[in-house]
Amino acid sequence: MRETTRPGPSVRGGSLGLTLALVSAFAFGGSGPAAKPLIEAGLEPLQVTWLRAAGAACVMLPLAWRHRGLLRERPGLVLGFGLLAVAGVQACYFAALSRIPVGVALLIEYLAPALVLGWVRFVQRRPVSRAAGVGVVLAVGGLACVVRVWSGLTLDLVGLLLALGAACCQVGYFVLSDHGSDGSDGRGPSDPIGVIAFGLLIGALVLTVPARPWALDWHVLGGQASMDGTAVPAPVLLGWIVLVATVAAYLTGVVSIRRLSPQVAGVVACLEAVIATVLAWVFLGEHLAAVQLVGGAVVLVGALIAQSSAPRRQQEEPVASGGAAGGAGVDGALPDDAHA
Description:
Blueprint: H1 11-29, H2 31-40, H3 45-66, H4 70-73, H5 75-97, H6 102-109, H7 112-123, H8 130-147, H9 157-178, H10 192-211, E1 224-227, E2 230-233, H11 234-259, H12 262-268, H13 271-284, H14 290-308
Antiparallel strand pairs: 1-2
Helix pairs in contact: 1-11, 1-13, 2-11, 3-5, 3-10, 3-11, 5-9, 5-10, 6-8, 6-9, 7-9, 7-12, 8-13, 8-14, 9-12, 11-12, 12-14
């Protein structure tokens, strides 16, 4: 293994990474409140997921062609991103919803930050900082309050395994988003735009069979959908899902992971559940209880603690803090032996 070091990030760079992570969490969090009216109008959840991936893939198609060299240079990266970060997360999550409560599935999926720390500690065999660990514990505990996991909990082993599969796929999203960011493997850094473009294309293709778009009621997309009693054009909702909740969300998310680190960005991503809950309150009339408001605040505190653990120096801090010699830098590059 060839050890590499990079200079630590500037305060401005770290702030930009955190800002992009928050934008990504907001964009991803806005997908649910926009998708639910379409589902209630007659579309199946997997059909909405396919429309999301296929529409975003069409938007990114010119960029995929521009970065077509990635297929030759990093085929494993683009294939893994499409299978895990795009298709795997969505397919496992929606399948889990058919067997266990939404809150339970969401909580298990957002165990991903803890699993990222497990990857760093036990697979890469790197130390993790206490601050990052505390941030994960607070974020997961706050998330349990946001989704009120104690309401309607039923033990369905298959459903729990599917939700855990979504969490594992989300770990793949964080790890693969960081893959090759420093070009330390001698092939040059992989362009995140190209990775996302091909990932969306592959994800849309993989989702085609289970989503059955040929059975989709296309008339729904030409009509109106109800958002808490307010009629909203279905194309507007679909446009939000494709352009904001997918294209913008993935672009800002991948860049933020490279500027922070997979583990820190993973904790910040827990805010997606908080944002989704607040947006559902505002636009769908799904009101928040006091315990959910407290839980949202706890998630925010956990995310900020994890972010504050990013050190200004690289070589003297554990990897989960954002830097270690030969390990993950604060902007998130994996060591050479972690690259496929």
